[in-house]
Amino acid sequence: MVMEIVCPAGTPAALRAAVKAGAHCVYCGFADETNARNFPGLNFDRSEMREGVAFAHQHGAKVLIAINTFPRAGSETLWHTAVRDAAEAGADAVILADPGLLAYAATHHPDLRRHLSVQAAAANADIINFYKSAFDIKRVVLPRVLTVPEIALINAETEVETEVFVFGGLCVMAEGRCSLSSYVTGKSPNMHGVCSPPSHVDYHENAGVLDAQLGGYTIHRAAPDEPAPYPTLCKGCFTAGDKEGHLFEDPVSLNAEQLIPQLAKAGVTALKIEGRQRSRSYVAQVVRNFRAAVDAHEAGQPMPQGMLARLTEGQATTTGAYKKTWR
Amino acid sequence: MDLTIGPNQFFWKSDDWASFYKEMAQAPIERVVLGELVCSKRLPFYRAQIPDAIVALQDSGKQVALTSLALITLKRERKMTAELTEMGVEVEVNDLTAIAELPEGIAFSVGPLVNVYNEGTLEWLAQLGAKRICLPPELTLQSVAILARRAADLGVAIEVWGYGRLPLAISGRCYHARLHGRGKDNCQFACEDDPDGLRVSTLEGQPFLAMNGVQTLSDSYACAAFQVETLAEAGVSALRLSPHSQGFAQICQFFRQRLDGTLDAAGLATRVQDAAKDVRLSDGFLEGARGADWSVGAP
Known about the structure:
The structure holds two protein chains of two kinds. Chain A is α/β, with parallel strands linked by helices. Chain A folds into two domains: 4-170 and 252-326, TIM Barrel (Alpha-Beta Barrel); 180-245, no CATH class. Chain A contains ten helices and 15 strands. The longest helix of chain A has 19 residues, at 280-298. The radius of gyration of chain A is 19 Å and the shape is globular. Chain B has a single domain (2-165, 220-283), classed as Alpha-Beta Barrel (TIM Barrel). Chain B has an eight-stranded parallel beta barrel with strand order 1-2-3-4-5-6-7-11, surrounded by four helices. In chain B, helix 1 packs parallel to helix 2 (50-59), helix 5 runs parallel beside helix 6 (141-154) and helix 9 (248-260) packs antiparallel against helix 10.
């Protein structure tokens, strides 16, 4: 079976671009804190979602709706409503992380297909099978802490489909288990759907040296001739002991295009592209390239080489945890 | 309120580990969670000491529980988790995988690294057999109050992080090993010289975080000195004190005095800072704009 390309859409225009470019699936979220990419100007209101789903279905593509933050105590209704509205919009699945919300969806919308979000950080077959028996999940998005052989082992031990990230931003920490951002800014991926938010970023220039701060902490310092990456907390430059550098992760993004044959062999069902905050032209280009790669693999042809180099804008890329040496 | 000693997050020498729990057997606390939380490679170094520590703690009237790992991926780790019940004490689940490994229907407790953010998840865990839940440190006082109320209806005891460096993230990558130019599999136990984690500072020299193998913590030590009354009123059953190498037995005493009403919030904060050798304190997750904040002045 051809591996599915699961593509991000932060806007209705990106959704249409992704579908036209050949995405098998598009994932998106409502414009509120129920999804883990709650950025200003992004995401879908209810009517845009209904229209987006209809458009995708007309073109033979699916829509997965991410409701993958952890509902706030006392305000669960907001998340419950999102699940209901996803069902009413005709979503092909919802992507959920919180057990309480999974229980709600399984009870009240049993026919709405449930995927386990990467935010649940389900990193072994036992917990995946446990989620299956508890909430009948059909697919799990695997956390970015596993090697390809470990993914193969998981697939050997579960019937639940697996989806893995292959391109875009890279979390260094186990997703859904990180409160670095709320420690520094009060805004967290788990609760608010944001990480290292722009509202808390400041730049200070001194003699040509540019300091990028997050919540008053200097995350990165760039000399006049150096690029100044966005101050994402875990990719900053720090000191510990007598060492200085990118102690957690370099400012790199994930590109596992060359691993497509290995991931297919490991039994992976779907390849996920990160980037709901990206433009529609970026999304379209990434989708076209991954679709070409998957189709080439299916036809027994070699992987096209370096097809996405231009999109990473000269930035370094990594295959992340898929290779054991990353650890 | 009771005091619970959370699992030691760091890699201590086996003898230091054993004498710490000997000391805890005499401390004015009700409950101790021990075992390996962060890295399965550490456990063999002190595993043999665990049964004696359990007996000593139980003999002095403490309740004892054994923690699961915070992130379970390898087959060996799943097996290790399934064997936790063999020690004959309650298991504290810090990765939901542990629930999948436990015999069905057995009572368990839930640690702060499981995402219990709302009533729905609390109810689900209670149905599965959770008797006690230490809430994630990230939660605000408001959320704590709502959850404590629901937990009371369900007969679940609620704990809140009271003291110690905050566990902020867990990863597949070992940062201590990376710092020494090694991989996780060949780490050579780079974390063993940092009994409270290794401070991570900004390029301006501002203390920021602490690395502890695959775990990232806050540089500041959380301290719920100023929230004791509010937490008690909300129905919180216990404060969790997380082990550190400096002055910990004394700090247990001070927290006990605070709960007994013989020490006020400012007095506790001052004494903690003296005993722990000038650590920075924080309580911003409970009632600040952000986790790093501290009730009495900027971090």
